[in-house]
Amino acid sequence: MSSAELTPEAARRPFSGRRVRFGDLVLQVVAGAAAAGATALVGLITWKVVEGARPALSEYGLAFVTRIAWNPVTDHELYGAGSFLIGTAITSLLALLLAAPLAIGIALYLTELAPRFLRGPVTALVETLAAVPSVVIGLWGILVLGPLLRDHVEPALHSALGFIPLFGAPSQSGSSIFTAIVVLAIMILPIVSSISRELFLGVPPELKEGALALGTTRWEMVRGVMFPYARGGVAAALILGLGRAIGEAIAVTQVIGGGVFIHWNLFSGGDTLASKIAASYQGATSKLQVGSLIYLALILLVFSLVMNFAAQRIVRRVGRSLGQGARA
Questions:
Q1: Distance between CA atoms of residues 228 and 220, nearest Å
Q2: C-alpha distances in angstroms, 306 versus 12, 142, 162, 310?
Q3: Is residue 62 part of a domain?
Q4: What is the distance between the alpha carbons of residues 84 and 95, in angstroms, rounded to a whole number?
Q5: Which residue among 214, 247, 286, 292 has its CA within the 20 to 30 Å range from the CA of 59?
Q6: What pLDDT is recorded for position 1?
């Protein structure tokens, strides 16, 4: 059977139709061991988190997920993840809503509009932003971003949109849910923009040139050719960015202000699952409190796994559709 006649399934089978060589066997063993090790590591992490959360699981069950309480002070301790779940959802979703158009715009600029002499430096700067440590971004949020939003942005939004409950009285300290949203948007921006840029660069030039030859404008080519071709990958990039926002702990802890309550005002303090774990785990004193914090980590772990599986499913579906389109 020639290499041209091999089906994708046959090509993926190890040592299919050829003599086994020592190097191939070593590669198979090493690669298989690495894959098995990664799978086992995820399983061990999951088992350890479930084991650590067992006191809270036994005490509260699934009611822990919806209960709005966190009281380690009184004799009868009471814990729940409700307010942290809502805080996580608000901060991560609004951060993604803020970062997505900016990230896609940056990717389009770097692939279609930027002069050649700017593409390299701007791309390097955007990707460098992803390498900045979370604690540094959080510190910048405390010293620079928080006061800027408190003194200028929040009063302006309150003045213009104060009739909407989301834009209530501005914060007094600069630490608020709104500050955390902006910090998270900055942190997921380079991830989404870098992946989107690679996807846009992967659009076949003949498709773009054909659309332009038919008389479309550049925007019509982007909207009618590039976006449909890359939409699945961009959706996966957005999901990965959302997972990054959900799991961020240090930077959010530094700027969100803290608080176990639910309110509409984005300019007040709050908490997320990750920030609560980062802020409280070292000071936990009772077995139930430690178990409750690890229960929060278990919820985060489930979120992360769901996000990754969703992104992989989207990428595979798009890959199959593109393969079918190419064969047609």
A1: 12
A2: 27, 32, 36, 6
A3: no
A4: 16
A5: 247
A6: 46
CATH number at residue 256: 1.10.3720.10
Structure tokens at 79: 């814990």
- Evaluate if pTM is beyond 0.70: yes
Q: What is the DSSP string of 191-258?
A: HHHHHHHHHHHTS-HHHHHHHHHTT--HHHHIIIIIHHHHHHHHHHHHHHHHHHHHH--HHHHHHSB-
Domain count, the chain: 1
Contact (CB, 8 A) for 175 and 267 = no
Q: Does a structural domain hold residue 37?
A: no
Domain contains 180 = yes
- Distance between CA atoms of residues 123 and 190, nearest Å: 9
44 domain residue, yes or no: no
The model's pLDDT over 6-21, given as tens digits with 9 standing for 90+, comes to: 555 555 555 555 676 8
For residue 147, what are the domain limits? 71-327
- The angle at the Cα of 143, spanning 140 to 147, to the nearest 5 degrees, equals 115
